[in-house]
UniProtKB/TrEMBL annotation:
Key word Translocase present: no
Matching CDD domains: Sialidase_non-viral
Alphabetized InterPro entries for the sequence: Sialidase_sf
SUPFAM superfamilies: Sialidases
GO molecular function, one term: hydrolase activity
Protein name: Glycosyl hydrolase, BNR repeat
Leader sequence residues: 1-21
The keyword Signal is annotated on this UniProt entry: yes
Keywords (A to Z) from UniProt: Hydrolase, Signal
Species per Swiss-Prot/TrEMBL record: Nitrosospira multiformis (strain ATCC 25196 / NCIMB 11849 / C 71)
Amino acid sequence: MFALPGFAGLFLALVSVAVVAAEPHSSGETHHHPAMHSAKSVKTALAVGVTLDQDGRLWLARVVDQHLLVSWSEDSGSSFSEPAVVTPEPENISIDGENRPKIEVARDGSVLVTWTQVLPQKYSGNVRFSRSIDSGRTFSKPITLNDDGRVTSHRFDSLAIDGDGRVIVAWLDARDRDAAREKGEEYRGVSLYTTQSFNNGESFGRNRRIQEHTCECCRTALIWSREGPIVLLRNIFGANTRDFALINLDKGGIRRVNRDEWQVDACPHNGGSLATDRRGQLHLVWFTNGPADQGLFYKRIDGNWESKPKPIGNADAQANHASVVADGETVILTWREFDGNAYSAKMMYSNDSGESWSEPMRLMESDGATDYPIPLIDNRKVLIVWNTAKEGLRILPIERVTARYSG
């Protein structure tokens, strides 16, 4: 164990790892799960969904052989429960890093899962939902949330809950584009649609269109803030400028959060990530390749005030696909880099709500195919989850310690 110095109050100590472990397979570095490796008879996806419940349990949603499975761990990933099958009938489920299964656990113990079902027609899919009311032992029959009946693109779903029964699912939807083209009209991008439940997913209301002309191929990020549910997405501004925007799903309105002026007639496949802290600030990270800026960036927003964008990672090492989480005044950023030989999971942290930051740290590396690192945080722990083809699922606990810093 070593301490990460430089911040007052809460600080982080990496457990049993020194920046990069010399032997990636050593038992002291991370928890590995060889059972999740690909095998000849079982195809296991690298993209997984994870969350922590109110008791600190780690929940895992993964796809094996076209079945969505959910399991949980009480020891930060050292061992998992027997998986529960969410999809008894095989489904072709989207399992890339931008479009992974989502999982949340409500205060009453209900386990909620969403995913994108890939249809045979090109770029088409359905947003699907299931829930468990017996602590993840069994799941309800999956339902399709998009209600238009079209065989078209409904993808890149995101899921958020308020903990008291309200559930919102948002996704990118091509129904408006298709309808316009059927009339011979032009339509830029797709639209953002939502549906919501007020009874922990027992039933959902009709679909609601939130925003037209959004980028069609970048993940959405959805959180519950003090101001209600807020989504971060790559929007299309003007003719074809694909910068990011925040939308409050209750209050409406759209707020542009970067002006990188990235105009691209292609799919960036690079969505952003969003979190909120104790102060009510928003923390966001995104990737851009516009003329104004290129690479990964972070900023925080407090009301009408916004910080300047902060560059993250090494652009020469393809720093990409960042995620941000926050609890109290601790904020964690993770991302992936590639040095030409191996991928690495990188991290930075702040203990003062993003006002100052640690230096970047390399946590793990792998020379095979990998998912993007996913950070999790609650008032007890920080976990970095990284699924790799070579080493399997890797879960790095990072201890949270209360201490005074006098340096």
